[in-house]
Amino acid sequence: MDAALKSTASAQPDRAQFDVTDATVSAIHAALRSGTLTVQQLVHGYVDRISALDRDGPRINSILALNPHALTEAALADAWLAAKPTYPLPPLFGVPVLVKDNIECAGMEATAGSVCLKGNLATDDAFVVRRLREAGAIVLAKTNLHELASGGETVSSIQGQTLNPYDLTRTPGGSSGGTAAGIAANFGLLGVGTDGINSIRSPASANNLVGLRPSMGLISRAGLIPCGLTQDTIGPITRTVADAAVMLDVMAGHDSADPITSQGASHLPTSYTQALDADGLNGARIGVLRSFFGSADVHAPVNDVMRQALAVIEAQGAALIDIDDPIDPDVLIAEVLAHHYEMQRDLDAYLARCPSTVAVRSMADIIAHGNAHPSVAGTLKTAVALAHDEAAYRERLQRQEALRQRLLGLMAAHRLDALVYPHQRRLVARIGEPQSERNGVLASATGFPAIVIPAGFSSPDDDAPLGVPVGLELFGRPFSEPMLLRFAYAAEQALQARRPPRATVAA
């Protein structure tokens, strides 16, 4: 544990212990209002868990760096509350947040998990981090990720491998697996991830969480270390749909530093929380995208969970329509994604602005240094090889537009409100194996929104005492987040599939 945090935390007055396990924003605010909890005690509670379970015990290895100012900020929050006990609490007042380490937080390094970016001390907050702080949140820690957000297993040259708290032999998905493992294990209340292809929803699926990839243009990417800005976005990773809605209220909005957010400015509701309706599935028309399900024996554990989850959703009044359109997610990955064509350009532009304490100024420098994690070496070489193939890049962008029109046409023809499918056709990969058969490409290649919620677990075994989590993904038209949140909330309330991992139940 950071010495300054430990010293400050140990000075806190003795009070009844607040159980942070699967706490929510509303529960924390109620405890703060009642005087049974202080923000300092809350931060202390999470830091204790990180010390006992992330850095010791099962060693989940999700937290890359603690914010040394977290308890000072908590003390200021407690002082504010003591001085203004009747004032309305800001929406995220006192809430400890875990932030993926490819997003800038003032006063902390932003490394994207790469030793090459050590020394990249942020002087300003990313737009979303500034919004979170203005809403009262406390950045508790930066989290591990798959290096440069360029893989699905969450392993980096700085931190090594993050473990899945539900099955310590498996990865937590990626690339935002450090944030997801930390939220699943209750090392923080809310999480911030990024998503270029699968990177919010994959770890949400693998860690029994909610993960929202927003419509392109809804949330600013300013302050993000990019992989390819046609597909890169930022979004919430939480334990409940309600908390994801609260985060989206705070994070969404126009930012002149990211001009694409002008597209989302006119689509903001009064509050995304207004969409939370336990009866929200009644009357919905949802297409079951059958080509995104596997048919081999290896797919049976996921298919079994999805079959049961879809039956519950149908019982809530939703009409489920089988869609047999042969959209092949593997073909989309191979032929439609554009990030490899943009990665060198966008990453080089970011690195050129880094402080002199950073040893690299380009992707070529990263390759020359030779100390990037081996799992990203192939991605870097591919990106260099494709960086100047303008004809192929334009063709990818045209295919993305064709896919948008195909999906809008399909949904119109069947009068669908949303599509549904498993985020991953097989269980999340074991450590040392590559991630395979993920379905996040549909949203990343189109820029349309998608949300993953817990669908259930595979059968328990010795490695996974609860089973391995399976995530259900709902996909919608651009800026249909209120509808997706309504469906997701109603499904979440009916399924009741969230369980804390046994490996980290107690500190």
TrEMBL record:
Gene3D superfamilies given in the database record: Amidase signature (AS) domain
Domain Amidase: from-to ranges: 42-485
InterPro entries for this protein: Amidase_dom, AS_sf
Pfam families, alphabetized: Amidase
Signal peptide (residue range): none
Name assigned to this protein: Amidase family protein
Source species of the chain: Ralstonia soli
